[in-house]
Each structure stands twice: as structure tokens, then as C-alpha cells.
Design goal:
35% helix; alpha+beta; three-stranded antiparallel β-sheet; single chain; 9% strand; 30 helices; 22 strands
Amino acid sequence: MGTAEQPERRTGRKRLVSLVSAALLTFGASVAFVTGPTSAAADPIGGCTATTGAIVAVDFGPFGGKVERGCDTTPTTGYELLHTGGFTTEGTVHDGPAFICRIGSGSFDSGKQYPTADKEDCVLTPQATAYWSYWIASPGQKTWTYSPLGAMARMPGPGDVDAWVFGGTDIGGTSGRPTFSPDDVRAAGGGPGPDPDPDPDPPTVPPGTVDVAAATRWLTGRLTGGERVVDEGATTPNYLFTTEVVFALAGADPKSPAARKAADFLATPAHTDAYAYPAGKDGIPDATAAARLALVAEATGKDPHAFGGHDLLGDLLTYVCPRDIGDGETIDGCFTKGDFRTTGQSDAQAMAVIALLNGGVTPPAHAVKRLTGLQCEDGGFTGVLIRSGGWCDSDAASTALIALALERAGGHDAVVAKARANLRKTQLPTGAWPAAAYLTTGSPFATGWASQALRALGDTPHADAGLFWLAKQQFLPAGGFGFEEGDTESRLYPTGPAVIAAARTDLVKLTTKKAEPPTPPTTPVPPTTPPATPPGGGPDLKKGTAYLTGPTRLIQGRYYENTPGSGFADYGLTIDGAYALAATGADNTTLRNIVDFLDKGGKDGKGRGVHDWTLIGTKHAGGGSLGKTAVLAEAVGRDPRAFGGQDLIAALARAVCPAPSTAPDRSCAAKGAYTNAPSVFSQALGIIAQVRAGETAAAADPIAYLESLQEPSGAWPSLIGTPSGAEVDSTAIAAMALDLLPDTKAQAAVDKALAWLAAQQKGDGGFPGASGNSVNSAALAVQGMNLDAAKYGAQIAKARTFLATQQNADGGFNVAKGGQPGSDVRASTQAVGGATGVSFATLTRSLEGTSAQPVPTTTNGAPVIVTPGEGTAVGGSGTGGNLASTGARVGGLAAAAAALVLGGWGATRVARRRRESTGGPA
């Protein structure tokens, strides 16, 4: 099986994840502002209905205006909708037009864009309380949702409405909502109109039949030794995938010998312990793993009370959270009363409930009730264990699984009926269901789950329409299914639920106790020997490197663009890519090209060099971008005191704040902070650069300030000077920085940080981040925990396996597990580098053996290739990925808006969580 697996349906986004700590710096007031596309003639408002087109509304109330609306009957993205709806925008100098800093409308104040230059210069990222935030609502939705995607990545559907509001939001996104409702701005003067179809008929789909036998043969072929799934390039089992194979094979044939052999393997005590009891045989179990293993036992006739030497059901009951977080003493792994400890996601909660019920055990009432609290306004369920009133984003797979669990539990007819109606309404005309509500293409994974649930609930015609669509998606004669419609490769995770649906059964039914006795176990398999550090079946770094260096992404082999075809380099992301190449050593020639481009005067398609981004020598220079650039120089053996013709180390010393600045100046958050770097990530990069340069004494105040920001839990927040929550990414980079210091205080801080990081790991090996179950955060966590690999080897192994599951066929990585599928350059840079476990603080890569190549620059705006001392030759241009970068993150909630607008940052939530890659542009 390839490393391009994605083992999870869409799970939404965890609310408590803190903001991205990125400081999107800019290049200086002397550079002209970058204005976005001019507005097009908007379609008449009446042309946008509940079934046609989309409406965008912009609230100019803070500037003395009113809410202005626009319509586009054929929108492609939220960014295009804003412009075709009749609005103009202006970006920041630093990040180009993609970061929406100003918006104007011909219907208000003669088209003047707001905020005006006297209020916001749009050079640095707008402050947290004054930026344009992005909200969305689907047909029939009466409240606004903070957009989970950037405007360039979001594809508005028929009847959708978008809103742009100036101001700010809190970390949870619960404040700063539009003061008007979606109904107020819909066509025909408000009101969503009748539901497009409250109880739609099943779509008319040509009949088709899934070849279940071929699919089960393909699944069986994925079992190494006929008993376990092992990822490509790995030596240890992928237990989660192995459980998926057991479910599918048992669904197709309740007496499947292959399913029982795999179950025997999982029931071997060493493997049960490795999967479900990572904290030790007597420690708190991983609830996700325990629930899955209990279901494996029930599906194959084994006893979940005596599986691998454990009473799985008894342990699940023992570790149900008795109270909400903050209500009394904190309990590790608990969020809300009724949670199975350490779950974090709704699939595990639902599977635990099903396992208990099918094992003859009554689950605690509050554990079942917890599932009902995950129902969104549209009747669907979210994939994340949100708290009451939390941001709720439903998806078909989560809705189906939870509906099955609640139907099995009984007593929740009204809730199940709403979920059932949601599944019927969200079925596409093709018969498929999308992975996420905002997508318009089918997902075999989601369709498999939805078909299971609707058949169980009595909606056979809808379920059959899903199977007819699945029949067209099956790869024959092989037998597997891809992630999404149009995929070209069979994947294990979507094939499992598709097979169960095609067998006309469901997870509840196939795990219901069978009458026949269990199959005697085979000879136990001895535990496998773990690989060398970093452990775990990690991603394919060679494929990842090829993705990052692809010519359509890395322009002329030198830089990534801010937006495809813009010619505007994203220097922060470009350095992220260089970090990744340095960590792997897989393409030193391209690494040399990037470094030479930055160091020797290379210019992007707009005539900008790296120091137009660092802003060195100006009042806008920031510690994050200076530190990030210096760390690259240090990593590859260049002199940071003469990089790109500038002394970065001296500039960092000048950037240390002697005291906090006073309003309206917001350049210094506190004594010891770096100027214009309001994030922990920025602070840590600056410290790493100074200490690596031998300037530990000069970094004394920044070090003291970073240490002061550590919370009692051991974590660091994302932002400096702005309230924000504890965050995996910031904690990891802070630990890397302080690990450079030998003193007892710093080392104790690192130990606390690593313990906190390890406790944040999800059952599937992932970590919470701005976009949900985040690739970026998992990669940074690997780097952090690898500072003490001997202690955290098991957690590192799980995280690297998680990263492998998020790698796609093209070598790139998804932004988040369960989010919008597709490779993202930003996430891929961190995944490739992070999977090596190499800390930014010790990253080293010799460029010996490489030779200098021509460096791109510009002449009259046309990119050319120039080698100092030689002639010039015309070079080509290309399109880059949709990017942002590792390092200092967005300073202020607004900065997340940059990531939201940038297309490639698909699943980030602006304002609420600011960082979702290895950092926003430093």
C-alpha cells in the first residue's frame, strides 16, 4: 500500500486550537501597494436564488456606510465572488493582493476603499481588532459560520451567501459575527426562501454493481503476511488500517478467514498494547484504539472483555470523563462530560458507544448524550468533539456514523430523523456524497458511510443510488476505490466503508454478536522490532521532495509564488521549502539554487528580492523574518552577517525591544520581544538565529521573554501581546529554541513542553492545529518530541505514520486529515522537513559538491536568468502553489485572514487560528 493514504473522513476543526503565530511582515512603504482585480459588473441580485448563484455582502457600517450586496450567478471561488459581485480590494505590500486589507464598492463613497490609509497603511498585517473577516452560510442556514477555507479555496455553492465584516474576532470565533443574518442579505429582500427540497427524491442514477469480491481480494492483498497492514517504507503495523480491513472483510463475509486472521494478530497482547495502551499496560487506554479493537472482536466472534489481555469495554467505561474541563480539577484527556478520555473526535465517541452496546454493556447516558450535542444546525454532525455552542461544520461520514450509533442506542428519534434528512438533502445528483458540505464532487469514503446509514434507517433508494455511483468509481479489475471522484489510485481507507455499504450492511450490524462461537486464535505473532529514531512508518520523503521541487510550484527552481501566476514571491514559504530540502538532503542542487537566489540578489517576477520581504533597515523590519532568513543561512553554511548583502544578526540585535511600545505604535509587544514579530514562532526563530550565531548574550532578553510566556501546563500560546490559547506549533518551536541552551531552567521548560506536546496527540497519531487534525502541527510535534526521542519514541512513531497517511499520490500532503483533499505546498514543506525529526535549531546541510546556477532577476518586468559576470538568457515563468510559510506567524487575528484568502491554505480558520503551516510568512 502506498504512503498516499488518508485515513479519516472529514472531521471539522477543533475549537480550542489557538491562533496561528505568524507575523506577516511587509516590504516597506516605498513599495507600491498591490491592488487586487478591479470589480466586474455584478449580476442582478435577483439572479441569485436558493438554487442559483451566490451572494456576497460587505458591511461598511464601521465607515459610515451600510451593507452592500453583490451577486454572481456562476462563482468559482469566494475571492472571485467578491470581485464579480462589484467590489474592489487591495492587498498588503508584503503578501500581495491575496491578503485583503481594504475593500471598496462603487455603491458607497464613490468606490473609496476602507480602511483608509490614515487608519491602516496595509504594510504590516492589520491588528487583531481591525481587519476584514470572512463568513459563510449555506442555503437554509440562519446563522453565520466562520469560513473554514480561504476565499481563494472556497467554492461557493448554489444559494450560498458570503459576508465580509470589518473588526475582529476572538480565538473561538464566537465574537465579531456579522450584525445581520444570512436571511437579511439573500435575494428578494431577505429570507432563504423555501428549502430547495426538504425531502428530496433519490437521484436518478444508472444502475451499477460494486464488485465486492474484487474489492475484498484487493483488501486482503494489502495485508502483509495476511494479518496486518504495513505502510510502504515502514516496518511497523498500521493498526488503524488493519482494523479497517477487518471491518470490511467481516462485512462482506461474517466468517471471513482473512478477517479473523487479522483479528488474531491484533489480539496478540504485544500488538494490543502497542495500539491501544501506549501509556503502558496499566495506563489510560487510547479510547479510539480501544473502541476499534472492541469492534474488531465483536465483528469476528471474539470477546471484547478479554482481547489482547485487556477488558476493552471495561476500560472504556472506566475512563469516561465525569465532568467538563474547568469544572473542578483538570482531568487529562477530558474536554466535556461524557467524553471517552483521549478521543477528541466524534468517530471514536460513536464507535465506543456502538462497541459497548454490541458487547452487552450499557454506555453512560452522558456519553450517548454527548453525541447528540454534536448535531449542527443543518441536522448533520461534526467530526470534532465540540462543546455546546461551538463552531459546527457537518460532514456526511460523521453524520452517518453518529446516526447509526444513536439509532442503536435508541431514544433519540428526533435527532436521528434530522440526521437522516440531512443525508438525503446533501446527496449529490450523481448519487454520491461529498467529503465536506462545501464540495461538489463525490467521495467514496463519505458515500460508503452515508449509504450504510440510510439503508439501516430505511432509505433504501437513496442508499442504492449511492451504490450505483460507487460502482462507477471502482477500479477494476483491481477492486479498490480512490479518495475522491477522479482519483486514479486505489486507497485502503475509502475502500473499507464502500465495501461494507456494497455488502448492504453497516458497522452496527456487522459487529452485532454472532451466534457461532469464536474462531480459536492462531499462534501469537511476536512483536516487531521498532525502527531507528525517528520511529514509525513515515512518509515517502523522496516523493515529497519531488513534489516540492516540481516546476509548476517552485518557479524557475528558485521560489514559490504568493498566488499562481502572480510573479509575487512568497519568501517565507520559499525558506520553508529550503528548510525541508535541507532536512532531507534529497535535492541539494535545488537547495543550492534557492539559497543562491536569496543570497545573491535574485528577484521575483515583480522585481522583489528577499530583503524586500525582511524589510531590513526599515522601521518595519521584524525578528521573525530576519530570524527565519538567518537560520537558513546558518543551516547551509552561509554567513548570516553577510546574507543577501545584509548583516541579519546585527539587525536582530537592533530589533530587540527595550520596552513595550505605546499606541498607536504596535511594533513592540514587551521588553525582550522582537519588533514587528507578535508571535511565539517569530520570537523562537529570532532566538535560534542569534544563539546559533554565537550571540547568546545579545539574545538574553528575548530568551527571558520567551520563557516568561510558557504557561503552567508547559505549553506556549500562539500570539504575543494578544490573548490566544495554547498551541502545538508554538510549543514545539519554543522547545526547539530553548533546547539550544544548557542551563537548568531552559531544559526544565523544554521537558514540560514536550510532556504537554505528547499529551495533545490524537488516537490516530495526529495533532490539533488551525485546520483541524493538522499535518503541519503533527510535523512540528515530531520535531519537538524528537528532542527526547528515547522518551517519546512511541508518540513520534504514531505521528510519522499519521503523516504518511496524509501524503497523496503526487508526493504532496493534505492540509489536514478529513479536510478538503489535495496537496498543499505549505503543508508539504513542513511535513517533509518535520518527518525527519530534525530541529530547526540544529538543522545543518552542507552544499559541498553543488555548483552555482544562474540566478533569476527581472528586466523591465520580464523574468530573466542572470549569472553574475556572465550574459543573460531569457527564462520562463510558471505557476506556484498556494502558499504561506514556516516562521513567524500572523501577528494579530487578522493575519489569519491572509491564510484564509490564500488558496492553498484551504482549511485554515482566519482570526481564530492563525498558523497552520510551519508558519505564516515570517
